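User: Show me a protein chain along with its predicted structure.
Assistant: Here is one chain, sequence first, then structure tokens.
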Amino acid sequence: MRTALQVALERVLWYIGDGWHYILFLLALIFLIISRGEKENRKWLAGYSILFGAVYICPFTARIIMKYCVGYLVYWRMFWLLPSSVILAWAAAKLCTRWKKGWAQIVCMLLLTAVIALAGENPYVGTDAPYEKAVNMQKLPADVCQVCNLINEDRGEGGYASAVMPDSLIGYVRQYDASIELVYGRRSKLKKRRRRIHRQMNREDPNFSKLTKMIRKEKANYLVYEADERQNEQIESCGFLKIGEVGGYIVYRDGKSVS
């Protein structure tokens, strides 16, 4: 139970991040609770938010939700269930309509908008920004598109392609070209051998002899691995041929397979 509570508190910090919107939300929630004539809103919005907080932080319910519903890693996404935007919008509208004159309401609205903007961070600016300008029409990382293009050029029209690649690529490959089969996907339930392949791919010092043997047994003919001269020699010594290098990845084809 203690672990569940620790994870819950840690995920609170994940959700808060570096912004101050949570303070605005708490102020708006308090404003809702103390406002007169807001029985229904207080019942449904404030009541729900308080109940959510109790369920989220209680070790017993937190453990059940983490273990059987959403998982420990993404428990912070529970906060998406909070009606924070609705409560903030209600508080802003309530404050603005307290003024009778139109110009005063406009000034109030602009001030509140500025407060909300300044309380957060621009997701498109800075080295740690979570978003960046798209480099292609698909809005996918350029490395992913180039890796898929390399495989498609090598296999030729109508050729077979089944690949093993790092987790950082597989989710995007599905979006760019679903004709390239993948031995495993993100968080998928894997058979024993595929689970071993995935484990080897995520090791700091993988056994490429075992890895390539298992790949061949799964009838996969392409391997994408992070670019490294020493590892490149080991992979090529196992019969996989380098067909190209893209960004931080090298694309190999099984030399024993028919392209």
